[in-house]
Fold:
Amino acid sequence: MDKKRMIKNFEIIHSIQIGARELVVGVSPELEFMCCFCTQDDIAEYYSEVMSSSEYLEIMELYADRLKGQIAAVQAQRNTLHIPLDMLGREHCFPLLDGDDIANKVVAINPASLRYEYQRADCQLILVTGESGARSNPRGTAVYGINVFTGRRASQWKRGDILGEVRPECLPQWAKDRLQVIQRERALKRSLSDTR
Structure:
């Protein structure tokens, strides 16, 4: 039997993740309904904007309104990108073999490993910084890296999520430009830590 997902005494009956937050609806044993946003990190699950009511349709209307708001936020974010959103495929990458060390290389995440709203170029390219899955003949699967578009630490990926190292001739110009900035920032951080 599947374990029921609970938030306090509310059993979650609807949930959808759009953008950075998950939207959930729950029902209590007393037939009270609740709608809230849920976010998670490595430590815990957090809830915000919690609303409850004994009226199911009132909560479902709130759920629909919040869902529309999340969709609009993701669309607004997409509209600010100003880069081609076409994703790279296997044909744009060197095949990833067990013996390949991908540390300090730009890799493409398999589109199927990205949530639907993030299946776009700015979310796909990662500069691998390390972890066990980045090494040749890896013992583990975890891969850490920097999102080439944002320059910030990306989510942890599994080696199986990676299509391969992006062929230099297939790397978009925007990615080459941002990669230069990231490399300069990393070199500056190393030089500062060496002087301490």
Summary: Residues 56-79 form the longest helix (24 residues). Residues 66 and 152 are 28 Å apart (CA to CA). DSSP finds three helices and eleven strands in the chain. The mean pLDDT is 92.
